[in-house]
Amino acid sequence: MSLSVVILAAGQGTRMKSTTPKVLHKISGKSMLFHAIDAAKEVSDDITVVLYHQAERIQEEIEAAYSGIHFHLQDAKQYPGTGGAMKGVKTKNERTLILNGDMPLITKDSLLALTSGDADINMSVIKLDDPTGYGRVIIENEKVLEIVEQKDCNEAQLLTKTVNAGIYAVNTSLLEKYIPALDNNNAQAEYYLTDIVKMAVDENKTVNPIYVEEEEFKGVNSKLDLAHAEEIMQRRIKTAWMKAGVSMRLPETIYIDCRATFEGECFLENGVSIQGASFIKNAHIKTLSVIEDSTIENSDVGPMGRVRPNSVLIDTHIGNFVEVKKSTLTGVKAGHLAYIGDATIDEGSNIGAGVITCNYDGKNKYQTTIGKNVFVGSDTQLVAPLNIADDVMIAAGSTVTKDAQQGDLILSRTPQKSIKNFFYTFFGTKA
Ligand code: UD1
Ligand code: CA
Predict the structure, then answer these.
(1) Which of 29, 160, 225, 378 is an S-S bond match for 257, by CB 3.0 to 4.6 Å?
(2) What is the domain-level CATH number for residue 209?
(3) Strand 279-281 relative to strand 356-358: parallel, antiparallel, unpaired?
(4) Based on the domain organization, do 387 and 243 belong to the same domain?
């Protein structure tokens, strides 16, 4: 690959009104910056992220998820602005693609379109009915002459509806020449990356406008933008999975994380939420169920079931109001109202209504292991750590604190008493 990528992510993101850096806000389960990095990785092997505001925190998050990403700390006090962000950045390939960290909807195809042809600079442009806020792009004979920031526009320039979408592919040698020569003689006293266009034109270089989809290039600046971008991303994710054969009832009510995957015949009912890197195969997830970072295979969950992270359900039925956490269930039925946490349950076992694994003593978490064909009666408390062998029956209402051996009936109830005529002694005889 002869393309380097620089992702600008040093801006503060004031309009987000958040203590979390703007680019770390998530869309479909993945931070905006990670969406940009993933798109960049598809086209380049030399990626630099420019940081300043909360640089350490952002760099840490990136380094925990990726290797081989380069970082550049902007000297934003002395050199503010997008041009300032590029000061001192070194890229190794012939061409450099400059992206923004707050454009999570960009696709590989658009990036490739921006790097096609042999112009000295390709820049992304959009035609907008309302160009407010964007830099205006002055085009003549299909070549870009100049980009003028809104605050620097004269009356005529303000009317221009062709705007700078903010992404450029530039010959690296030109960047190395023009970036050090930028000045800040403008309305914002910032170093504008956009000024390299005029510098190139003055030297008879070609600057091509590449018309792009507004949807992909919309920057996310506020929580409102974030919500809009989320809608677009969700539509894309669900469309792709439906094309791949996943059935969805009322898809607009369903949420699917960008890391989730499906296989075989899957049916998601309305209001389902599939979070994290869940894997769903031949499964039916019913209304209002939530699946988080789990594997569900040949199973059905819900309605209103909750499967929390690190669970594996195989050949299993989970009914309404059942919560499963960090547990592996193979061939199990848990039809109603149960909490199954830190447990392993084997084939043919039935978990009655109201069963609870007491997995936490206030300090530590403990495991519950249940073998094959175990019948756990309703309203049983399983106090972990606990081992229930195969073929065990546990009577309803039991509090089980000791391990059970194969074939046992476990019963821990106070014997039932009957006090004759107590009702009448208490209330008196009714008239
Ligand atoms: C910039 C363009 C404008 C274009 C718009 C598209 C300039 C001068 N103007 O506007 O023509 O229409 O993008 O969205 O480039 N950043 C830094 N360091 C900084 C400032 C910004 O890294 O000092 C990063 C931001 O984090 C962001 C990107 O650069 O990812 C764009 O910054 P933003 O302030 O949104 O763009 P504008 O300058 O308003
Ligand atoms: Ca700005």
Answers:
(1) 29
(2) 3.90.550.10
(3) unpaired
(4) yes
The verdict on 154 and 246 lying in the same domain is no
> Which residue, 356, 357, 280, is CA-closest to 314?
280
| Domain encompassing residue 308 | 223-410
- My answer on whether 150 and 255 are in the same domain is no
Cα-Cα-Cα-Cα torsion 334, 335, 340, 344, nearest 10 degrees, comes to 10
**Whether residue 94 sits in one domain with residue 187:** yes
- pLDDT at position 393: 98
Phi, psi of 275 (to 5 degrees): -110, 160
Compute the distance from residue 132 Cα to the ligand 2 centre, in Å. Answer: 13
Within-domain flag for 425: no
Mutate which of 82, 147, 162, 186 for ligand 1 pocket (most atoms within 8 A of beta carbon): 82
The reply to whether 376 and 249 lie within a common domain is yes
Q: Which of 217, 239, 258 is the last residue of a domain?
A: 217
Give the Å distance between the CA of 133 and the centre of ligand 2: 10
CB of 104 closer than 6 A to ligand 1?
Answer: no
CB 101 within 8 A of CB 23: yes
pLDDT in tens, 352-405: 999 999 999 999 999 999 999 999 999 999 999 999 999 999 999 999 999 999
- Residue 9 domain flag: yes
Residue 415 lies in a domain: no
Position 29: which residue type? G
93, 228: one domain: no
Digit-coded pLDDT (tens) for 198-236: 999 999 999 999 999 999 998 899 999 999 999 999 999
Residue with tokens 């931070």: 31
Question: Tokens at residue 397, please?
Answer: 């209402």
Predicted model pTM: 0.93
Q: How far is the CA of 81 from the centre of ligand 2 (A)?
A: 6
Query: Which amino acid is it at 395?
Result: A
Ligand 2: distance of its center to the CA of 94 in Å? 28
Report the percent of the chain where pLDDT is more than 70.
99
Q: In the predicted model, is pLDDT for residue 420 greater than 70?
A: yes
Is residue 336 flagged as an active site residue?
Answer: yes
Number of domains in the chain: 2
Residues 311-331 have pLDDT tens digits of: 999 999 999 999 999 999 999
How many Cβ atoms from other residues are within 10 Å of residue 135's Cβ?
25
**Catalytic one among 53, 70, 228, 336?**
336
Which one of the ligands is nearest to 221 CA? 1
Closest ligand relative to 82 C-alpha:
1
